[in-house]
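Hi L.,

As promised, 2-hydroxyacid dehydrogenase:
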Amino acid sequence: MSLNCVILDDYQNVALSLADWASLQPTVHTTALTRHFDHEDELIRHIEHADILVIMRERTPLTAELIGRLPNLKLVVTSGMRNASIDLHACAERYIAVCGTASSSAAPMELSWGLLIGLARHIGLENQALRNNGPWQQTVGLGLQGKTLGLVGLGKIGGEMAKVAQAFGMRVCAWSQNLTDSRATECGAERMPSLHALMQASDFVSVHLVLSERSRHVIDRAALAQMKPGALLINTSRAALVDQQAMIAALQSGQLAGAGIDVFEQEPLPADHPLRHLPNVLATPHLGYVADSNYRTYFTQAVEDIQGWISGAPLRSLL
């Protein structure tokens, strides 16, 4: 038996060096694609003979249509144990196994703070001016001590955000549909009675919810209108948690002073998208989980998943 394994969207060209793919030989031949394919026909030309696909969340969606054009596909391995961009029903109908890997929440939490501090202290703008011989000191930054961080969601990442905020001497308040007083107390946060109350109280708002139909556009035009003058919004979770058009309008008008963003409705972000050009936006290209520790886990466990599937061992199944 000889199987073809293709790793999709290996943007940094590191996947083959971070795990022992050679241990799968001679049964499995592995290749990595280092660029993203926007057009399905072009993608199909590169993966139509794949028996196994290794994918990253939110990079290339595995739609029913795409799965239907991959007659040899037998196994899909994704980073993490949640991937809304895989049509699991289509995989089940084809008896395609779908499994995942562990994933640490430390990296996205750290990036959230990087964006928050970078935005608060105008690091991007001041660095650009310094490199281009521009004005020496042109902004007054926002200090964190004594300010209020509002957390929309107080799960695993939100709870870690609260701990860091306390180390900075910040007040922490939190809200979500299911947040309890005991969870808020456990995290050292004040549970707010409503989202609008949180938006009104916060100098910085950071979003940490799982995307669902209930949470889609939870940060809408009305919620944004409640934010303090000068307040900043951070989103490293999912783009659709925030009404993107309402956020862009608020940024353009100055109603929202700034936003630190790592997630977008379309990725890669189109070249002419306003979020690439607004001066009060600090944006990164979905780097939340992109850290050495996570990548080693993803690819090492991907190899383990493939080995387990070949041997008939129990899988970290998403089905």
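The CA atoms of residues 80 and 103 lie 5 Å apart.

Thanks again for sending the construct details.

K.
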